[in-house]
Amino acid sequence: MSIYAFEDFVPVVHESAYVHPNATVTGHVTIGRDVYIGPGAAIRGDWGGIVIEDGCNVQECCTVHMFPGVTVVLEEGAHVGHGAVVHGARIGRNALVGMNAVVMDHAHVGAGSVVGALCFVPTGMQIPERKVVVGNPARIVKDVSDEMLAWKTEGTRLYQGLPRRLHDTLRECAPLRALTPEQAARRDAQAATYRTWHETRAGGAAAAPGDRTGD
């Protein structure tokens, strides 16, 4: 793990969490139980603090940072998709921030809310619980249904189990030169274990733009 002390602030990482060797965690950072930090993520607690509570995930190439004197909080089960930026904000319990979204200073994403992919949440925006927000600047377009919240929770649960699997099985290896039948069978079995939001809704109405959330 790339873990760095800064001015006597040493990151605190629960033993069950997984911080990828290509992620960087610096300074005044606390990472809870069963948290996943993906490769390329920068969790930088130099000018303020960062608290990532139990069961969160911060995926590949995300940035979490702040202005001086601010503590960023990702509440339990918060889910931050690939390439997202959280700067000086608070992400509520079991909320989802979609791929390449930006959540700015002093914004608060309410519990169970969904921030769409590529969304820009401006400074100070207060998003109530269980709302879907999209666009630049962000706007609230609808409520998070029970079905959508259950789908989000299921996806986050996959990430909560990922740290243990990585601790148990991740290793450097030489590549195969061709796909073996065993690997192909494993791949097919893996594909059957999860449905995207669009697949979950298959057979119903076409997905609305606000459903393009990303994970």
UniProtKB/TrEMBL annotation:
InterPro entries to which the protein is assigned, alphabetical: Hexapep (IPR001451), Transf_Hexapept/Carb_Anhydrase (IPR050484), Trimer_LpxA-like_sf (IPR011004)
Superkingdom classification of source: Bacteria
Xref: Pfam families: Hexapep (PF00132)
PANTHER family according to UniProt: DYNACTIN SUBUNIT P25 (PTHR13061), GAMMA CARBONIC ANHYDRASE-LIKE 1, MITOCHONDRIAL-RELATED (PTHR13061:SF29)
Name by which UniProt lists this protein: Phenylacetic acid degradation protein PaaY
Species in which this protein is naturally found: Roseisolibacter agri
